Amino acid sequence: MKLGIDNIKLPESKKRGPLGSLDHVKELGLSGIFFSTALDMSPTLDMGELREIRAKADELGVYLESGIGKINPYCSAEEPALRAAGGGDIIAGFTRMIEASAAIGCFELWVAPGNFKSEYRGRLANDRFRTDITWEDQLIGIEKVLQKLAPVARAHGAHLNIETHDEITSFEILRLIEKVGPDCVGAVFDTANGLQRAEHPVFAAKRLAPFVRQTHIKDAYVGRAPGGLDFQTRPVGGGIVDFETILPILAEANPALNLSLEVAASVADKPRKANPRQCIQIDDPIWRAGHPDLTAEELGAYMALVDAYETRVASGEVPDWEAYEASQYGYPSYERQSYGFDEAIAFIKQSARHIEAICKDKGITLNSATENRKAA
Question: What pLDDT score was predicted for residue 374?
Fold first, then answer.
């Protein structure tokens, strides 16, 4: 295994560009970078630029991962660059990204099934609960897009890996893999996103492990609040996710899996919206009806996880939502946002140390940040 980072959340990634970001990753002692799409490496998919990035990654000895973007046809209008990549033909755009990625040795490709709008509170923040189209119809549309792209992926030895994104469940991802085929479709396991669907991270890891080909490694605060449960991104080890159990599950299924940290973005790179509080409306009848695969057993285990975490919060071991928000972002006055470059780097280093320590304790071979720092 190697420990790297998601490019979107890497501080100053846009400012430094892909080549500079690779240098930055190496400076941080990390072992790779996960570009969400090939367009993040080269907006025009210029093969000269892409090969230069590949050569730089090889020179630095870090992994390079990529993707093709959001494949839900009902949210495509919100991602115009995907259609533009195909000159107006979005399938052609996806095809070009698969071909360009494969040409530089990126065969594991991220795809996501929807959008998350943090400015909206509760279930309306994600596409699962859109009111103009049902989630069932969106899943059908996603499957149709995957079926169109499957021959291209197979021809290039690539996998289109569906992220456990904010709006989809692991059960639904498994059904899509079965329908389209595990020879060209896999999963990106985001260790915290499933919490928003009331999925226990360990249960989800066990379900998806045989098909996990990429990761987003992140942690989160989940605690009771008016309207349901609060969700807030935390440094790895500071949240509710049980990495000591999850990492061995993933390592056993795929010992060469890359672990890509997905951290809280610096406010210098992504200014905070006025209402950042994410609410899981777990007691809302519409929300509950929208999760038919959620069993009483898993929901019970999930709430037990929440209870255990709340005990840590009550003891003072872990700051509550308000205290953490105030320390990082100057809540409630968003003009005093303090979570800048230095804070984001500290977040990354703290998260990396936690993953390294678990891997060492569990006997998991990790091309770790520590080893890279010593080599540098």
Answer: 42
What confidence category does residue 276 fall into, taking pLDDT thresholds of 50, 70 and 90?
Answer: low
Segment 81-99, tens digit of pLDDT: 988 999 999 999 999 999 9
Residue 233 has pLDDT above 50, yes or no: yes
pLDDT at 179 over 90: yes
Phi, psi of 215 (to 5 degrees): -140, 160
- Is the Cβ–Cβ distance between 32 and 2 less than 8 Å? yes
d(CA 47, CA 102): 11
For a pLDDT cut of 90, what percent of the chain falls above it?
84
Q: Are strands 219-225 and 278-280 parallel, antiparallel or unpaired?
A: unpaired
Question: Could you give the CA distance from residue 222 to residue 306 in angstroms, rounded to a whole number?
Answer: 6
3-state secondary structure the chain: CEEEEEHHHCCCHHHHHHHHHHHHHHHCCCCEEECCEHHHHCCCCCHHHHHHHHHHHHHHCCEEEEEEEECCCCCHHHCHHHHHCCCCCHHHHHHHHHHHHHHCCCCEEEEECCCECCCCCHHHHEHHHCCCCCHHHHHHHHHHHHHHHHHHHHHCCCEEEEECCCCCCHHHHHHHHHHHCCCCEEEEEECCHHHHHCCCHHHHHHHHHHHEEEEEECEEEEEEECCEEEEEEECCCCCCCCHHHHHHHHHHHCCCCEEEECCCCCCCCCCCCCCCCEEECCCCHHHHHCCCCCCHHHHHHHHHHHHHHHHHHHHCCCCCHHHHHHHHHCCCCHHHCCCCHHHHHHHHHHHHHHHHHHHHHHCCCCECHHHHHHHC
Provide the whole-model pTM: 0.94
Tokens coding 9:
């959340």
How far apart CA 328 and CA 213 sit, in angstroms, is 33
Decide: 32 and 1 in contact? Cβ < 8 Å. Answer: no
